[in-house]
Design goal:
about 15% strand; 14 strands; single chain; alpha/beta; Aspartate Aminotransferase, domain 1
Length: about 400
C-alpha cells in the first residue's frame, strides 16, 4: 500500500469546528470567552502565572525579546548594541527579533546529535556586552537546561526559551517554558497543537507580562482586556508623559508597540486542541521510538538523535544526518523518499549565516566554527512523527528506507 505521508499536519474533529461556529454565532470575534478559557487552561497545564496569546510563534519571539527592552528593568534593560547569544542552526524568527531590536546576535554552533548548542559553547560566547540568551529546543529536544540555568545565574543574563517546537517536552520532570524568564510557543498547524495560526508568550514575572501586553497592544499603557474599561479604577485620573491630567488611560502609549493579538476563533480551536494534547504527545513519542529502533541498526550510516539524560522530549520530527562515508548522500535518500510520497524537511534554515538575509551584515558576531551547523545543512533531514501518522504509515516509512539502504549498500 502506498501513502502520501506528510512531515506534519493538524489533527482535529468536530469539537474544534463546533467551537469556531459558536464564536461566529456569538458575534464577538476578537479576544473573548475562548481566549480567557485557553489562557486559564494553558496556564494550569504549564504551571505558569501569565499567558499572553498572539497571532503567531514568530510574534511571540518578537514580543519576548522586545519586552525586555522596557525601561522598567533599569540597568538590565536590553538596549541597542547589547549582545544576545543564539544558535546559527535555527529558525530565523528565533534570531530576527535580536536584529529588529538593533542588538547583536552572537551565533554559536550546535551539537550534531542534540542539534542544540552546548552549555560550554554558550559560556564561551559571553562577554561584558551579553544581556540575554535566546535559544530554541530544537525539534522538541530540550536544551541542557541544568547547565544553562547555572550560566544564566552566574552572569545575570536573561534567558528566553523558544518552545515553539517543544510543547509537552520535559526536563528533570518539569515542562519546558518553566525555566526561562520568558518563553514562547507556536500554534501553527505543524506544532503539537494548532489554532491555524497563533502563538503564546508565558512568564512568571509580572513586569515582563505587563511589558509583553504593552508591546502586543499598540504600546498602550492600559492593561484592560479587550472589551473592558477601567480595570484600574483610575481611567480618567492618570497624568503620564506631557499629557493633560485625566487623559483617557485607554489611549495613553508608553511603548513603541504593535498589534499582535489573535482572534477568539483561533482560541476556540486551541481550547479543543489542548484537551487532545496528552494523546498527541503519546503518539509523537510512539512514532519517534519506532523510527529510532529501526534506524539504530543503521547508525554506521547516520548520526541519530541524542538527548540529555534528564530530558523527556515531545518530538517535533525524527531527524538524522547522513554520515560522510555513507554509500549514499542526503540528496539521494531524500529524493527516494519524496518519490515514494514520503515528505521530508531540512532542519529549518540550518546555518542561517549562509542565507542571503544574513550575509555581509556588520551587526552580528560569530563565535567559533560552525562546522556542525554546516554538516546539518548539507547532510541532515527529518521525517514526520505527528499524531496524524498511523502505525501503518510509520511502517511504510521504515520499509521504504530499508529498501533504499538495501539498494545502495555496498556489497
Amino acid at each position: 500500500m502506498k501513502f502520501s505521508i506528510r512531515t506534519s499536519g493538524k489533527v482535529f474533529d468536530h469539537h474544534e469546528i463546533d467551537n469556531a461556529i459558536k464564536v461566529a454565532k456569538d458575534g464577538w470575534w476578537t479576544e473573548g470567552e475562548f481566549t480567557k478559557r485557553f489562557i486559564k487552561d494553558f496556564s494550569s497545564y504549564l504551571g505558569v502565572r501569565y499567558v499572553s496569546l498572539v497571532n503567531s510563534g514568530s510574534s511571540a519571539n518578537l514580543l519576548a525579546l522586545t519586552a525586555l527592552t522596557s525601561s522598567v528593568f533599569g540597568a538590565r534593560s536590553i538596549r541597542p548594541g547589547d549582545e544576545v547569544i543564539t544558535a546559527a542552526c535555527a529558525f530565523p524568527t528565533t534570531v530576527n527579533p535580536i536584529i529588529q531590536n538593533r542588538c547583536t546576535p552572537v551565533f554559536i554552533d550546535v551539537d550534531p546529535g542534540t542539534r542544540n548548542p552546548t552549555a560550554k559553547a554558550i559560556e564561551h560566547a559571553i562577554t561584558g556586552k551579553t544581556k540575554a540568551i535566546m535559544l530554541a529546543h530544537t525539534l522538541g529536544n530540550p536544551l541542557a537546561l541544568k547547565s544553562i540555568m547555572r550560566i544564566v545565574a552566574r552572569y545575570h543574563v536573561w534567558f528566553i526559551e523558544d518552545c515553539c517546537d517543544a510543547l509537552g517536552s520535559r526536563y528533570g520532570g518539569k515542562l519546558v517554558s518553566t525555566f526561562g524568564h520568558v518563553a514562547t510557543f507556536s500554534f501553527y498547524p505543524a506544532h503539537q497543537i494548532t489554532m491555524g495560526e497563533g502563538g503564546g508568550v508565558v512568564t512568571n514575572n509580572p513586569f515582563i507580562h505587563k511589558a509583553v501586553r504593552q508591546f502586543r497592544d499598540w504600546g498602550r499603557d492600559c492593561w484592560c482586556d479587550t472589551g473592558k474599561d477601567n480595570t484600574c479604577n483610575r481611567r480618567f485620573d492618570w497624568q503620564l508623559g506631557e499629557l493633560p491630567k485625566g487623559y483617557d488611560h485607554k489611549y495613553i502609549y508608553s511603548q513603541i508597540g504593535y498589534n499582535l493579538k489573535l482572534t477568539d476563533f483561533q482560541a476556540a480551536i486551541g481550547v479543543a486542541q489542548l484537551k487532545k494534547l496528552p494523546r498527541f504527545i503519546k503518539r509523537r513519542k510512539e512514532n519517534f521510538d519506532k523510527l529510532y529502533s529501526f534506524f539504530k541498526q543503521y547508525d554506521r550510516y547516520f548520526i541519530l538523535p541524542t538527548w540529555e539524560k534528564e530530558a523527556e522530549p515531545c518530538w517535533f520530527g525524527f531527524m538524522v544526518v547522513v554520515k560522510g562515508d555513507a554509500p549514499f548522500s542526503r540528496f539521494e535518500i531524500v529524493q527516494y523518499l519524496e518519490n515514494h510520497s514520503i515528505g521530508t524537511r531540512n532542519l529549518f534554515a540550518a546555518n542561517l549565516l549562509h542565507h542571503p538575509a544574513y550575509i555581509g551584515r556588520k551587526d552580528i558576531r560569530v563565535v567559533g566554527s560552525m562546522k556542525n551547523s554546516d554538516i546539518i545543512m548539507n547532510d541532515g533531514f527529518w521525517v514526520g512523527v505527528y499524531p496524524g501518522l498511523t502505525p501503518q504509515m510509520i511502517d511504510f516509512v521504515i520499509v521504504t528506507i530499508a529498501n533504499f539502504i538495501r539498494i545502495h549498500r555496498k556489497p
